[in-house]
Design goal:
Largest interface: A-B, 38 and 38 residues
Number of domains of chain B: 2
Largest sheet of chain A: 5 strands, parallel
Shape of chain A: globular
Radius of gyration of chain A: 22 Å
CATH architecture of the largest domain in chain B: Orthogonal Bundle
Structural class of chain B: mainly alpha
Number of domains of chain A: 2
Helix content of chain A: 25-40%
Number of helices of chain B: 11
Order of helices and strands of chain B: HHHHHHHHHHH
Distance between the termini of chain B: 40 Å
Oligomer: heterodimer
CATH superfamily of the largest domain in chain B: Cytochrome c-like domain
Number of helices of chain A: 12
Shape of chain B: elongated
CATH superfamily of the largest domain in chain A: FAD/NAD(P)-binding domain
CATH topology of the largest domain in chain A: FAD/NAD(P)-binding domain
Number of strands of chain B: 0
Strand order of the largest sheet of chain A: 5-2-1-9-20
Radius of gyration of chain B: 19 Å
Helix content of chain B: 40-55%
CATH topology of the largest domain in chain B: Cytochrome Bc1 Complex, Chain D, domain 2
Distance between the termini of chain A: 35 Å
Structural class of chain A: alpha/beta
Chain lengths: 423, 248
Amino acid sequence: MTYMNRRQFGLLVGAASATLTMPAYLRAQEKPKVVVIGGGAGGATAARYIAKDSEGAIDVTLIDDSEQFTTCFFSNLYIGGYRDFGSITHSYDKLQSDYGITKVTGMAVSVDRDARLVKMADGSTIPYDRLVVSPGIDLIWDSVEGYSEEASQIAPHAWKAGRQTQLLKEKLDSISNGQQIVMVAPPNPYRCPPGPYERASMMAHLLKTKGVDAKIIILDPKDKFSKQGLFEEGWETHYPGMIEWYGPTVHGGIESVDVSTGAVETGIDTFRGDLLNIIPAQKAGKIAAEAGLTDDSGYCPIDAASMRSAQDENVFVIGDASIAGAMPKSGFSANSQAKVAAMNIRGDLIGSKVFPAKYSNTCWSLIETDDGVKVGAQYAPQDGAIASTSSFISQTGEDAATRKATYEESIGWYAGITADMFG
Amino acid sequence: MPHGEVNRRTAWAGLVSGSAFAVCLAISSQTLAADDADTAGERLFAQCKTCHEVGEGARHKIGPHLDGIIGRLAGSLDDFKYSAAMRQAGENGLVWDRDALDTYLEKPRDFIRGNRMSYRGMSDPEDRSVLIEWLAATSVSQPGDPIESDDGAVSGPARSFADIVLALEGDPDYGEYLAGECVTCHQASGHADGIPSIVGLPKEYFVTALFEYKTNVRRNEVMKLRVVNLANEEIAALAAYFSGLEPQ
């Protein structure tokens, strides 16, 4: 059976690294060093798994410019009024106290890959033997003409969780009868494929609950979107007439935005919003490009079997910044990729067994109270890319009990993944 | 490969005891209202008989013969050309016990995706039960002759997939790595907030539950997806790992 081969493979890799790699570090009488840039679903998980499974044999440093981490996943539930902000914000304390990870709060600005040094904004440097780059996404501001970082203070993107999420919520809370919200959805590939549509659902839920008669227009550069049938069914059931989605064949192309007037120009018409939620195109977090790990797509090519950078064998890129084949850019994916990277890094540095890579993802979305839907898949390396091996999606017309169970499952998942990230 | 042969042998050993079981049930079903059940079963089988035969001299048609189906390892008749999906199901350890047949017959395409049986499904659980008992009673042969092993040793009894997996020695190290996929939702601490804890579950319960997800006895798409491609050794490894953990 296949496992025999896998185990033999693992033993061989383990044996090889034990005899070749490990003594180099042991001779130096110094622990091998792993530096992780980015403390989200990818980075925090990688740091925790390397520290936990190496039982102190590897020195782990986690760099993130925030003291606390607000998850992008479930931030729509905050917008919808289901969660408070504190419940989606997590501290790095346990990673330090229980796992011995050094947390550095600051901005990594570049990487000297020859010298294996991470350079920080304050001028300090941090050496590494293996580097994990998990910076998430950066927004391509000018992908929507007229949009910019400054404009996002008026028309929030809220696609990186934190202050932006709160800003969007504040603006949503002030929407009144007869007003209109216009969302500009991002082009592929982007973080959290069902996210914009779950967000529209959560906005509609909040307005409906407050008895506010307002409309939500989604202008999409894509012809179709994730879980489209499920969302459209849910919108018709729960929010009749409240949410309108327009693809490019209807709006004729998104041309520009003027956040001061709330106008979005498209090929066919001008849409006006009292609240604009502009979600621009995306690319790998800036440090990935600074470190020379990206390709022309703006994201980072990796080895599908290990998440190792195609550009540098000492570097691993995980999460939204990586080109992970069929896997969507999601917190679940990043967490899954982190475990594969962590295993390979332990194999590299202390000769731990390396098993074949397995990846998985599930994305839950909430449409209305107790109406949860999900999509998921298993993945494995195939012909040099991460390919889907099996998948499922919630069905339209499911009964209420199934949808409620799906929502409750998502609550359990949130508790699970955040415990898996932060200890 | 050695592991594969062991599995197969154990599975076949299960067929012997499984078939004895079928005979007992056949006898008991004849004691009460046997004629009614026979008639009802035969009537239900009318939907199947374009493609399947059962009873004395049953041969393969479009589908494999069903004589002795109860307790047969899925996709295991040497002279029938199965779909890759059905063969895979057998390799994963699926044995056609009553529960498995029941869920399969309800929605064949959901139970084993990509299998070739062109049948929408039988929605009435009563009908399925009658048909399954009729198949058991009508079979004249046993599920198959056990494969003779070189050393003559036939271990068992294995009536189900779970028994086959429980007979394997799981590697907890491999289980720990594979568990990375589980603990994204099932907290390693044993805490449960909407998704049940699996920490410290007895092996038997763990393995049986995974099999039940695999065969839709327990229904959850996320669990099914994670489990469907797990080989027997992987399930055994996970059971070994989780059964050895203490809740915190």
